[in-house]
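Worked example 2:
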Amino acid sequence: MKNKQINLSPLTIQEAKNKFEFFKNPKLFIYTKRQAFQNIQDAENFINRHRQMPNFFGIYLNQKQKLIGNCQLSIDKNQQKGEIAYSIDEPY
């Protein structure tokens, strides 16, 4: 999925360093039960776990093809509702 400023693409293990750079910020986790990443291995584990999930994407800036976050789209057909969960690096 793509618009003028961002596109959503599957995360790859090659993004672990970029993912670690913004997920080491504890401010991103103020309202969640998760903790900031301590090392690149945390980022690799996160990517490997979430690559298995349907509708999980990295959020990339089109201009720089820079990873700035991630999102997951969930649809409950029985309840006829959807949910978007996202995390975006602090400057964005």
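The domain at 6-88 is CATH 3.40.630.30 (Aminopeptidase). The mean pLDDT is 90.
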